[in-house]
Amino acid sequence: MKMSKINISFCINDNHCLYVFFTISMIKKYTTNLDIFVLHTDLSDKSKDRLKTLVTESVNIHFVTIDRDLFSNLPLTLDGITIETYYRYLLPEILVDCDKVIYLDSDLLIRCDVTELWDIDVSQHYLAGVNEIDIINRFPDHKLKLGFDLDELFINAGVLVCNLQKMRQDKITHHLFTETERLKDIILFQDQDVINLALKGKIAELPLAYNYTVEAMEKDLLGLDEIKIIHYNSSGAKPWKHYQFQELPLNKYLKLWQVDFVKNIKQIQQTKVSLLLPIYHETSLTTIENICKQSYKNIQLILLNYNTDINIQVPDVCSHYPLDEEKVDILNVDPASPLGLDLLKLVKGQYLISLNHIDELDDSFIETALNSAEQYQSDIVLLENCDFNENDGNYYFHANLFKEETVTAETVKKHFQTFPRHKTYLTNPYCKLFKTSYVRDNNIDLANDLIPKSYETDKISYVKETLYVYRKIKEELISVIVPVYNVENYLHECLDSILNQTYQNLEIILVNDGSTDSSGKICDDYAAKDGRIMVIHQENGGLSDARNKGLDAMTGQFVTFVDSDDYLGNHCIETLYIHAKTCQADIAIGKYIEFEEDNKLFVFPNSQNSVNKIELLTGEQCLEKCHRYFSFIAVTAWAKLYRANLFNDNSPYKSIRYPVDVLHEDQYTTHKLFFKSQKNIFVDEYLYVYRRRENSITKTQLSEKRIMDEIKGFEEKIIDFALLNKDMTYLKEYYIYLLNQHKTYLENHQQQDCEVYEYIGKRLMTYFNWQDKP
After folding, report:
1. Strands of 77-146, DSSP E
2. Does the predicted model carry a pTM greater than 0.70?
């Protein structure tokens, strides 16, 4: 032989590359001093670079480009078999310096030193292979049709030892092409049939151990320690696919490949892409099925578990989905700890993709995004998307976000400010790929909304192909209850903000509570223009009575309250609804901005601040947040979306209504709703504008009734806590704080001789006897 190295050949395209990488890795485990020839037509640079990482001083890889047109007249008779299978015909003519070569398919598990194969004497034959036992049992008629007896040698072409010198001498390449043309109407297994027919009588038989196929696996013809090469030659038994084979022995052989794949490929390759998937409930896990279908496999999956009621374990996830445990991480999100810091500690990939658990990905989404990043050396890749609306079952496609395939930071900033669709797309973290180092260096939190500063790089590329589907969830009817009393100067702004909501399936109930100005007429005018509006006119009964009338009239599955001098951000109801549905929450709570009418200032209360975009809380945790941090938002009726059955369902507690003829009605009511709820979500987003004005109920000077009603509301809450045996630690502290605040107020206004001051004094006297009790 002219060459001292062992020659090995593969005929592949990009789809085979990862598996050939694995096969070569396994060969290297047992054998050195290799010359590997990869025959291809248009193998990508990415695939070549991947294979080149296997090159060492003793292992060379050569890429040989083949003209595909040479094979244009040859038949493809089986699904899943590509034209590259015929490229081995050319081995004698291409590898002119080689007298011998081992040809291997890509779906193999090498378990031996291939020197054993190399040393087999084929000097008197064109090639050597293992007898194809599968065809005898599965396609006996076909073997007979080709002119073979059932017990006659008919080899499987997945593992061949080829005598190239003899094949060149006898012009076997030309002979194989000619025979393929002649036999094209009768062959089934393409070039394998042709090789057996054309070279009949000149083929040596190899032991079964060197090409142990599915038929052999199912019959357990050899012991595991005897098998040299396992060949997964059936389309229904590819180990990189996910099967639920319960029966042995086939499952045993599939797992052998998978275990070695993990040990060799995934240790050699650096994880390229880390995927962030939020988990709110068990159905969120179904998105993993979509991820497993991705053409790009070298990923890390990080599950962000927002729901501590779900005990997610990595082995459980991997038992249901074809994922390696080493590539799955779970982060239980702590509401009190910033998610971004903990998240980046887990990230192993060079790139990051944040996913929404209800959206859909094209199977090529990750690979396409990664190709763009590598082509343009991008810090960020933006990808085109479309919408699927569950309400009408239609897909909605859009004009391209950008014209060019590369985008500057200035262009992104401009679109952020001027185009609503661009702002919506650029704000959310989905349908984008980020370089991990860029995220770390710029402190970008992919668990929260993005801002223009998130895009301060000119290394941004854009993929025009639509590969991501945003899912717009089905809109249930939401009742919006607006008590109205003498707010003619503010009512237009309030109602316009409701009508302009991005969420449109609304039932708007305006309860005119005996207004003496034009508020009632304004309500009627709006109702005449919009069929979603219902107006109830009544004699003045107070805010609680008006809300209760709305609750009695509502038919929606969810309900929210808006005070008639306040107004909503355009996305308020949609944001709360999406989070309530996504997290299966009973109450969704948003943040509010105070607008001070007198000085025209917007105030952002600190008590609402959260470390993460969302917090999933039980009712008791919401109340603890209220009492521990004096959180006003946890008490108010507005800036929340409630499941309607919290108010109207008699089980397990009675229907809930607001107490009539008292002020601070929320103090008497909101905690009851939280106790009745199972799960609630706090959204760290400003959605509601609360107006403080001179003549509003909350702005007027504190009267004795106002003070007493608030104290009585607290005391009713204390009784409810006690009856339900709830922890009152923070409630007690808040109560004492409230008593002292009102005591100081009355003293500053020289009102120590009033009844409520005396009442507060008596309550404070009991504090010393109460503070040590649970």
Report:
1. 100-104, 108-110, 127-131
2. no
